[in-house]
Write a structure and sequence with these properties.
105 residues, 5 helices, 0% strand, globular, membrane, transmembrane helix
């Protein structure tokens, strides 16, 4: 049960570097992905941590992260690069949700 807690902790920890513009927000994005992947791996045995990490990841990527946020984005990233980075998070989330639904049947 340590790994889901670690994934949640990574998703929570990734909010701090996401506020800083530049390379730190990109590092925060990759920390978010790592925490999310860990929580998806254990989503059937610990759905609570998957739900919490998913919520934090969505808030982090869409609102908090300086490079990827949708409102007042001042970075030099293009719209297509932003779309790809955000869709990677949603693909991982969709896989985790489908994994949970398969486990419930």
């Amino acid at each position: 049960m340590l790994m889901p807690k670690l994934g949640f902790a990574l998703a929570l920890l990734s909010i701090l570097p996401a506020f800083v513009p530049g390379a730190m927000s990109v590092i925060g994005y990759f920390i978010t992905l790592a925490g999310l992947i860990i929580c998806v791996r254990y989503s059937q045995s610990a759905p609570k941590y998957f739900l919490l990490a998913s919520t934090l990841s969505i808030v982090n990527v869409l609102i908090v992260n300086d490079t990827l946020r949708l409102i007042e984005n001042e970075s030099s990233i293009t719209l297509s690069e932003q779309f790809i980075a955000i869709s990677i998070v949603f693909v991982i989330l969709a896989y985790g949700i489908s994994k949970q639904k398969i486990g419930q049947t």
